[in-house]
Hints:
Elements: E1 7-10, E2 13-16, H1 24-46, E3 59-64, E4 67-72, E5 76-79, H2 85-96, E6 100-105, H3 108-117, E7 123-126, H4 132-145, E8 150-153, H5 162-179, E9 185-189, H6 201-206, H7 213-230, E10 235-239, H8 257-269, E11 280-283, E12 286-287, H9 297-311
Amino acid sequence: MHHFLRAGLVGGVLRSGAEQGAEPAKQREIARYRPQLEANEQFCHELGEHRKPMRGRGARHGRIGNSIIRVLSMARILITGSADGLGQLSAKSLADQGHHVVLHARNAERGRYAKQQVPSGEHVIVGDLSDIDETKNVAYQANVLGRFDAMIHNAGVYQAPTKDIFSINTLAPYILTCLIQKPKRLIYLSSDMHLQGRANLENVKKDMSRISYSDSKLYVLMLCIAVARNWTDVYANAVDPGWVPTKMGGHGAPDDLQKGYETQTWLAVSNDSRAKVSGRYFHHLTERRHNPQASDVMLQERFLSLCRDITGIPFPQ
Length: 317
């Protein structure tokens, strides 16, 4: 999918830079996704979006809590599941700092809501991450927009059918990691509940109904550490945001809401040496211990192979 990187409007229709002269198989794949791309382009025009030119980069300062931090100037960041909750709060925080934020929502209605909540968002990508084909299309849309400096894999579900829990919490981050042009930083939202997870990969093959939320968050942490091991030119880290009072966490959740999104935004843009690491697991700006199964290289390789078999997408080395 990395050939779908440059795009423009030709005759009112979005075209990829690889479309001209593409071989028949590629043309068929392009044609397959074009209706959804055109619909998304029309949706963005309805929201009044305009492509924003990238400005010069350098360094500037931002604030996390009461601390002043040195951050990347005008980074471009994609955040999945940014219509509400921690994704929306992360998007608002980064946009307020002057960064270019691309939002994501599972459908057009939620996309409009996301844009209303973060009006300075550069673009809204629409796609249901519980569906493999729609997730592939999300990657296609992202690549049409160009390279990102960072991506926050925020989308997740808790009280949902088991298939959706695995598809959204685990498979979607795998697909998007494989297909979206490699950013400089990747941040994956896990949970301290991953400590109760078990990497019983046979369950994924034979009986997906036995996969728990904790398992799914162990698998996404395993993906993160595998990415860090294979892609040494990328900072890939995972975050436990805590139990915070969002729609998912409930109003009675005891943790600080602001601290629930600070770590992932810090990892996305900070020049702090503590943020420029890879293969780590953080909670509230601090590295924490994680389930040792996530670091087991043999388990990682089996997990990547399993995801390849389910999605038809090999992990890029």
